[in-house]
Amino acid sequence: MNSYTYLLDLALILLSTKVFGLLTRKVRMPQVVGALLAGLLLGPACFGILKQTEFIHEVSEIGVIVLMFCAGLETDIDELKRSGKASFVIALLGVLVPLAGGLGVAWFFNRPGMIESNASASIMLQNIFIGVILTATSVSISVETLKEMGKLNTKAGNAILGAAIIDDVLGIIALTIITSLADSSVNVVVVFAKIVGFFVFVGVGGYLLHVIFKKWVKGYERDLQRFVIISFVICLLFSYCAEKFFGVADITGAFFAGLIITKTTHTNYIARRFGILSYILLSPVFFASIGIQVELPDMSPMILVFAVVLVIVAVLTKIVGCGIGAKVCQYKNKDCIRIGMGMVSRGEVALIVAAKGNAVGLMSSSLLGPVVVVVVITTIISPILLKLSFSEKSGKVEYEQNEYARLMEEAEAAGKSDASRYVGGKQQAK
Predict the structure, then answer these.
(1) What is the mean pLDDT of residues 150-169?
(2) CA 351 from chain center: how many Å?
(3) Which residues contact 211 (CB under 8 A, 6 or more apart)?
(4) What is the pLDDT, as a whole number, of residue 427?
(5) pTM above the 0.85 mark?
(6) Does the keyword Ribonucleoprotein apply (predicted)?
(7) Domain-embedded: residue 418
(8) At what angle do helices 301-328 and 368-390 cross, to 10 degrees?
(9) Which of 156, 250, 383, 386 could cysteine-pair with 30, CB 3.0–4.6 Å?
(10) Nearest to 252 by CA among 141, 165, 194
(11) What CATH number is associated with residue 60?
(12) Residue 257: which of 232, 233, 235, 229 has the closest Cα?
């Protein structure tokens, strides 16, 4: 690194995300919305003060890994098991309905005389790929919002987490199938084998690590920092193995690493330490980077119409698809709505999928603009919708300081074994 500009970038990100976070809190919106807006305003899409650099990208990647690791630490495994079958149904319909919706919109607009395509793949494959983009879910936004509200460990919160993990796997399968049709070098069978291998790895390796870690930490009351370091090592190794060897998202590996360490002695202490790190540095950089990497290309009137329709379909199909899935699994109506709204955000996941499709000729360059618009709008409105769905009749859900940074310490001092439930109870009491 030849200059110290990254220090200025970091200072601007931390300051702007905090200021905008406080402003959004003032209007009873999640602080994560402020962080997203800060990145969007300072990035190339608006004022161009900040741009995506290798440093910001890598720090943000670590940020989302730690965020999902903390989510795993905070997850009630028993509740997650109970919602496992429901999560699969929710995820399946949350993929199929947006896929059909995106295909329908693309079929209508992506034709000669309306939108001219320069992609090499057939029109049908291009249209299907637009649907594949809409299947993506960026669970990190929902996780942060749920943590901020103290709702991560609720029935709906666990269903969102479980469905998002399965959604990631189903999204990989859908992307692989459509990519293999356009690129002969992609082998669907190999991808399926890798996914199965990942869950075998998590099941066997995770169980052994859990037993070893549980025995190791038992009885220690001093020098607990060592457990934090080893926990981070496990998190990073699982994230690396998920991406490198199995083709699964690194955040999925991080989440399962958190599940391995949860329900062990000093889990609360470990979660608090990671929470502070995430709160003061990693999370602000990650959420700001989503906005920073947004660049809106020039769009014709027809492309703008396509973008508007695609946004509406992107939002409604996730809410309807996931909501129907939750209803089939006998969730209450309010929980169905919460789950559907928790799955709306596409975030950086959709951008990655779009970039992949553009590289192999599955998407016209002219359609990149509408995809970016979908990412921006769904990412910003998802936490707002989630907040509204959890609001009481009075509409008052107070957003306090970050749960980990402020209340974890209180939980630890009070000797609470389950910090998440303690935090949630404190929030509800207010």
Answers:
(1) 85
(2) 13
(3) none
(4) 47
(5) no
(6) no
(7) no
(8) 40
(9) 383
(10) 165
(11) 1.20.1530.20
(12) 235
